[in-house]
Amino acid sequence: MNGNKTLIAYVTKSGVTGENAEIISHILREHYGLEVNLVNLKKNSKPDLSQYDNVIIGSGIRMGMWYGKANKFLKNDFKDKKVAIFLSSGTAGDLETYQEAITKYINKKLTKNPHVKPVLTEAFGGRYSNFDYTDPEKVKAWAIELGKKLNV
Ligand SMILES: Cc1cc2nc3c(=O)[nH]c(=O)nc-3n(C[C@H](O)[C@H](O)[C@H](O)COP(=O)(O)O)c2cc1C
């Protein structure tokens, strides 16, 4: 390992998690000089983790659940890699229900997966029917915070 290889492994259905993965990759490359690979888990569900120092996992939420391939990916042994998680969720985009989204989709998930100890997590707003709760500026700010916590 060369100390800066970073994987962003994500699953998206309505596009938001994919867009946010792109934003995060740009920030990590430009601000921190990290070598970042983006992998859509629907196309490659088993990327070779051995080459990475940092693993960032992204998933959308539907019907109260992470997307299946992201959920499966979370079962990996991330060993001593730095791990981070970001989600796209309708309820996370509304201030009144944001905390509920964090509790349901992040905190409970981590309780069930104690082998995963992320350095940073966040749930961003999503897009569905006529609603658009996306917030690229929030994603950029999060990626800047994240870069400070990763192996660089
Ligand atoms: C069929 C359907 C079910 C959804 N269920 C939930 C839900 O249970 N909780 C939630 O917070 N958002 C829910 N959403 C909103 C999604 O989280 C939102 O579309 C988000 O952008 C999905 O991520 P993606 O764009 O990367 O696929 C749902 C959206 C759809 C279309």
SSE blueprint and pairings:
Elements: E1 5-11, H1 16-32, E2 35-40, E3 54-62, E4 65-66, H2 68-73, E5 82-89, H3 98-112, E6 120-125, E7 127-128, E8 131-132, H4 136-149
Helix pairs in contact: 1-4
The structure holds flavin mononucleotide.
Folded structure, characterized:
The termini are close together. The longest helix has 17 residues, at 16-32. The protein has 152 residues and is an alpha/beta fold. 34% of the residues lie in helices and 28% in strands. It is globular. It has helices at 16-32, 68-73, 98-112, 136-149, and strands at 5-11, 35-40, 54-62, 65-66, 82-89, 120-125, 127-128, 131-132. A hairpin with a 2-residue loop joins strand 3 (54-62) and strand 4 (65-66). Strands 1, 2, 3, 4, 5 and 6 form a 6-stranded mixed beta sheet that branches. Strands 7-8 form a two-stranded antiparallel ribbon. The protein has one domain: Flavodoxin domain (Rossmann fold, 3-Layer(aba) Sandwich). Helix 1 (16-32) packs across helix 4 (136-149). The protein contains 4 helices and 8 strands. The model has no long low-confidence stretch (mean pLDDT 96). The protein binds flavin mononucleotide (FMN). The site of flavin mononucleotide has 19 residues, from helix 1, strand 3, strand 5 and strand 7. Flavin mononucleotide binds next to helix 1, strand 3, strand 5 and strand 7.
